[in-house]
Amino acid sequence: MRLQDCTTNSATLALEILKKNNEKLNNIVTFVEPTIKGEGKLNNVPVVLKDNVNTKGILTTASCKILDNYVPVYNATIVDKIEKAGGQIIAKASMDELAMGGTNLTALTGPVKNPYDLNRISGGSSGGSAVAVASGAVPFAIGSDTGDSVRKPASFNGIVGVKPTYGRISRYGIIPYSSSLDHVGYFCTNVKDAATLLEVLAGRDDNDMTSSFEEVKEYSKELNSDIKGKKILVFSNVIEAISNKDVIESFNNLIEGLKKKGAIVENVSFDEKLMRAILPTYYIIANAEATANHSNLTGLLFGERLEGSSIDEIMIKSRSEGFGPWIKKRFVIGSYALKEDNQERVFRKAQKIRRLIVEDVMKKLSDADGLIAPAATGGAPLINSTSTNQMSDEYLVADNHMVIGNFTGCPSITLPMGYTEGLPIGVNLTCNPFKEQTMFDISFAIEEITGLADKVKEDF
Ligand code: GLN
């Protein structure tokens, strides 16, 4: 579904479809009656929000038990922006608990199903939002991306997933995960819509001190698929680690297409030792920041409060009951990394390694227009064979390379690239900070090559 196809009854219709689909997909936490609050680029557009976006007067659970009764008293900045532009919010979507996960199996309301195969995961943590777009119910849904939580589910569901530059979209009112890595992102079905949506969402917000003053361009008007002379780097470490033949074949075809359009394509290898360090470095930083950010989830100020005879007992009981096992495990890791004796040895060291990775990547990327690689090693895994234990320190660069977009803050997009055994596979493109126009232009060319704009799966 495209933005431009929306008409006056689209929101009502979309709500009906979403409700019906939810019986099979299990991707929605709360349905919302559509209301028109403004007029602009999103006129008549039904919108789904990830359930970590604060909505005034509307339940916002982040798919976490401790927040299962939390009704915010204010809107996130992006909610006001969407509504001012004419968008109509019709649902809050399921996610991995507190956005900590990549499967959507950890949501309080249970697993979200992939519309291409109901036995498969949607991917996460923005799985509910991804599936709302991929199933053709809405043209646009909000997600958040701390490690790849928009770009990975986009790949598993055959749609476009955008994570702009750090600071490009205000995070005010988004329940945080890891402040130095969190980005607001979004899903849609084509590059033109992706460009238009950034015009609506981006911009300085005084309520978010990390938001940028950088001018917001008319990306959709300037969209241009002429990529002659654009230098695109192929991420060799990732390609070498992928064994799925369909992924490699679709990727190679795409690269041929880019060359035919006049792009200069070069292979690039990053330091192997640093690539191996991506995942452990990410987990230390993300879990440490999450532990600090979520120290306010005590049951005292808001959310589920359990009975106790002292404040300590209330907090201990509420926190013990209020979080899933995988979250507690992450808090243990985070607390360990932040403990006074360990801070230098663990947390600061992870920050230093992050810096080395960023320097290595930026040295090469800043001399080019983009870095490209498959967004996943294959199609969406089966629900039954997927583990929620993601604490592995194996060499998984092929599955985790998109974290680089969060380490660097660079804009990064996933687009559909092809299929493997009927399941969608995506390609990921990362560009230089605030070069979203370049990112959309190259993406526009990619879309022409693959012919995979506006692919949704309505029958499942
Ligand atoms: N899967 C990663 C994690 O569990 C990324 C999550 C995200 O981007 N929110 O931390």
User: Which percent bin holds the helix content?
Assistant: 25-40%
Largest sheet properties: 11 strands, mixed
Radius of gyration of CA atoms, rounded to a whole number: 21 Å
Number of helices: 15
Shape: globular
N-to-C span: 17 Å
Instruction: Give the SSE order as H and E letters.
Output: HEEHEEEHEHEEHHEHHEHHHHEHHEEH
Number of strands: 13
Ligand names: glutamine
Please, what is the oligomeric state?
single chain
Report the uncertain regions. none
Beta content comes to: 15-25%
Q: What structural class do you assign from the helix and strand content?
A: alpha/beta
| Widest beta sheet: strand line-up | 1-3-2-6-8-7-12-13-11-9-10
Q: Calculate the mean pLDDT score and round it.
A: 96
General description of the model:
The chain is of the alpha/beta class and 460 residues long. Helices cover 37% and strands 15% of the residues. It is built from 15 helices and 13 strands. It has an eleven-stranded mixed sheet, with helices on both faces. Strand 4 (113-114) and strand 5 form a beta hairpin. Helix 5 (191-201) packs antiparallel against helix 15 and helix 9 (272-293) packs across helix 12 (343-365). It starts with 9 loop residues before the first helix and ends in a 10-residue tail after the last helix. The model has no long low-confidence stretch (mean pLDDT 96). Bound molecules: glutamine. Glutamine (GLN) binds at residues 99-102, 125, 145-149, 177, 286, 390.
